[in-house]
Amino acid sequence: MTRPTIYLIRMGIFLGVVAALAAILSFTLFDAFRANIGLNGVILLVLLWGIIHSFRNVASLGREVTWIESFRRDQAAVTSNISPRLLSPMATMLGERAAGRFSLSTTAMRTLLDGIWSRLDERRELARYLIGLLVFLGLLGTFWGLLETVRSIGGVIASLSVAGGGDVSAGFEQLKAGLQEPLAGMGTAFSSSLFGLAGSLIVGFLELQAGQAQNRFYNDLEEWLSGLTKLSSGGIGTEGDASVPAYIQALLEKTADSLERLERIMSQSEGTRDSTDRHLQKVADNLDKLGDSPALQNIDQTLTRMSQDTAQGRNQLLEELRGEIRLLARTIAAAAGQSKQ
């Protein structure tokens, strides 16, 4: 993206040249300004307004360029502190797709560019109006001064006396005094035209630079968005071809976007599954190493001996119980035989 700094430098150099010329002609311009301070003051205020507006339009593009560059470096920049004004619709649209790689359809790109162009054109409208206003104020002062001149000349002619015996020098002095007002009217006419046309020239040049900066910004933005745009099936075709209905095209584009998101999700899931498999393999290896350790083998042998000892003790105990039971049975049988005798 091209930054608008070069255009700001051009505008600054132009204003410097104008200021130098105004300084050279300062006495003449001051006398012209005094011809009608009110109207000429309004013209200069409108001129100052146009200068500030033109510089502001160009300088504001720097914020948009900074946002685009930040977004191109890191797509998470849409949520940063840099919030564009001219590109706020695009920031909202791209912010919804900030995660992963995204693409725009031709319809979405064209709608986006049309909206941005409309905003740029709205900013130019005020500058065009100010240029026309400066010309209008200059012409207004011209006609105003001419009306005063015509009226004053009529009064001077009416006041002239051609009667014989009059003092010629007195009549000449009266004529000179009467011409002061028409000359003041001519001064108003020419001074307002001078300031109005010069002001429109200055604002026109500044607006020319602002328009070039905005066009360059728009072209760079269009080139960048073209790299993110995928052509739909209905985007290219001859004049006689049957186009795909809009709702079907929108459905296909929506389906393509959904498939693209599904592909990203599956890629992420595949990466997660591979990581899980690696962790499980590490756990299995650790268990194998643990199973081969001497400590576990000793424990296994000890438990085996304990099991064998327990089985032998249980058998011996059972044999002793059986012997005691036999002895007890014989004793009971002998006691029973003696009692019968």
Which keywords apply here?
8 helices; 341 residues; 2 domains; rod-shaped; 1% strand
Q: How many H/I helical runs?
A: 8
Kindly estimate the percentage of residues that lie in beta strands according to DSSP.
under 5%
Number of domains: 2
Neighbour order of strands in the largest sheet: 1-2
Q: State Rg.
A: 50 Å
Describe the largest sheet. 2 strands, parallel
The average pLDDT value, as a whole number, equals: 76
Number of strands: 2
Report the uncertain regions: 233-244
Summarize the amount of helix as a percent range.
Answer: over 70%
How far apart, in Å, are the first and last alpha carbons? 130 Å
Coarse shape: rod-shaped
Q: Structural class per helix/strand content?
A: mainly alpha
Series of secondary-structure elements, N-terminal to C-terminal: HHHHEHHEHH
Which helices and strands occur, and which strands form pairs?
Blueprint: H1 5-24, H2 26-34, H3 37-73, H4 88-95, E1 104-105, H5 106-159, H6 168-226, E2 229-230, H7 246-291, H8 294-340
Parallel strand pairs: 1-2
Helix pairs in contact: 1-3, 1-6, 3-5, 3-6, 5-6
Describe this structure in words.
This protein has 341 residues and is mostly helical. The protein has two domains: 5-230, no CATH class; 248-340. Helices cover 82% and strands 1% of the residues. The protein is built from eight helices and two strands. It has helices spanning 5-24, 26-34, 37-73, 88-95, 106-159, 168-226, 246-291, 294-340, and strands spanning 104-105, 229-230. The chain has a two-stranded parallel ribbon. Helix 1 (5-24) packs antiparallel against helix 6 (168-226) and helix 3 runs parallel beside helix 6 (168-226). The radius of gyration is 50 Å and the shape is rod-shaped. The relative contact order is 0.10. The model is unreliable at 233-244 (pLDDT under 50).
